[in-house]
Amino acid sequence: MSRLETLLSAVVCLLMAAILYQAWSWMIGSGDLLSEGKTIVEQAEFVRKYSPLLLPKGT
Fold first, then answer.
1. Which of 8, 18, 32, 54 is deepest in the core (most CB within 10 A)?
2. Mean pLDDT, 10 residues at a time, over the chain (59 residues)?
3. What is the pTM of this model?
4. What is the CB-side half-sphere exposure of residue 39 using CA atoms within 13 A?
5. CA-to-CA dists, residue 18 to 3, 32, 33, 35, 37, angstroms
6. What is the widest separation between alpha-carbon atoms in the chain?
């Protein structure tokens, strides 16, 4: 159960970081909505690609 909780907290943390980054970039007004949407997709691909490296390894 502890490993599952760690996994969930890591996923939530990554999602919050991505959301906060998007909110900040919108707030400073960088780009239009289409380019921002592309940025969200790129972030999702980045998280999916690198999240196994961030998660704790099983014993």
1. 18
2. 86 88 71 61 77 62
3. 0.41
4. 15
5. 23, 18, 16, 15, 12
6. 46
